[in-house]
């Protein structure tokens, strides 16, 4: 198998007119998805584009996913974009891509004309209305290999310049084969896709649908303004499987949605991208009796999630939930600062190896070389590892524990401090839904932002009872909601800019 398109080609004949993707207004069956993908692929191939990026500048819809597959059928790699992204970010990305084709829907055409030359813009309706050219598609497939790029997803860089992570078919194939059995995806699975399509997290649902014949509903982001509406949406569509970022789950449980309505069909809840407070996990467990809960962990640079842990016991409020064991065909190292291996129980940087690794950052050799390096434990032949910048350790059961980001490990009053440990302590306070701790290096002070009903005095008292003096925030501020990035993670840069 050398292309993820082969998953779709096997499931479409089997599931035919069953819904693959739906956003409530439009739907695509497996047959319709395959036809759109082949028609669009034929159109793109006729333009003589080959193994190059094609921007898909469309809003979250089933047709957008159809455009992703169309680009891959043409032997190119898709780059998901949205008009909801900041304008400066779109300019940087499109400038770096210099793509010869930008596929647009009606809502993005006008903006696209301000950003790229007119001759590059192609309406999605025109792409999908082409006739299928099986000979052209067969010619493309014959020349393809499994390490050809499938997509480029731009993530936020620490310098403010987005990084274009380039994923390949081989890594996606292995990811699908490992992920689906872990989360129990099959033809009866019904997903609610919470994230935008321009982040890699959506691949969990997309791969499950095309490999297993599942169905995915594309949730509008506006639903999360009212957590009650989120739960009603899950019940209306009989959703039984969630693969959500932890902050999305926290919004629903922490703001009291389960007091009025509970999910009726949920069998599996996968959470990741950020630490899920144990208090919020318990609320979901109570609301979804008998459901399986799985902690997923992994970076975009390793094709999504790389580790999993099935929650099989109770945890205290301040106890970290393990991220567990690596998926099949994924290896990892825990390296100390001197590039030696950290002993069992000692903290080291999580480094990933294997076919899960992406191809690096598009048109960015310097940052690629800094993050994707030779395995220092193997001097005998070339072997790349990806340095995640995350710190972890193994517990007594051999499960990996995420400790913190390397840049979240700071020195305060001469002591080494993990910001994640302070946040976990705050999350354990009654009335705190979620907390974020920051360190101002210039002033040598810790600051904390949180959301919840607890007042600042109560939280400060709780922290003083639990933490040493050098870990106590100098100032604490309650917010109605913590700012989030489009991928659902807490927007720490926005918090840094806030006045306390």
What does this structure look like?
This protein has 500 residues and is α/β, with parallel strands linked by helices. The protein contains 16 helices and 25 strands. The strands form seven sheets. A five-stranded mixed sheet has the order 11-12-13-14-15. Strands 16, 17, 18, 19 and 20 form a five-stranded antiparallel sheet that branches. Helix 11 (246-254) links the parallel strand 11 (241-245) and strand 12 (268-272). Helix 1 (5-15) packs across helix 9 (203-212), helix 8 packs across helix 9 (203-212) and helix 11 crosses helix 12 (278-287). The N and C termini lie far apart (55 Å). The model has no long low-confidence stretch (mean pLDDT 92).
Question: Strands, helices and their partners?
Answer:
Blueprint: H1 5-15, E1 19-22, E2 27-29, H2 30-46, E3 53-57, H3 62-73, E4 77-81, H4 87-97, E5 102-104, H5 109-115, E6 121-123, H6 124-128, H7 134-143, E7 149-155, E8 163-168, H8 169-183, E9 190-193, H9 203-212, E10 215-218, H10 227-236, E11 241-245, H11 246-254, E12 268-272, H12 278-287, E13 292-297, E14 307-310, E15 325-326, E16 330-335, E17 348-354, H13 365-371, E18 372-374, E19 384-394, E20 400-405, E21 409-412, E22 415-418, H14 419-427, E23 432-440, E24 445-452, H15 456-466, E25 475-478, H16 492-497
Helix pairs in contact: 1-2, 1-9, 2-3, 2-7, 8-9, 11-12
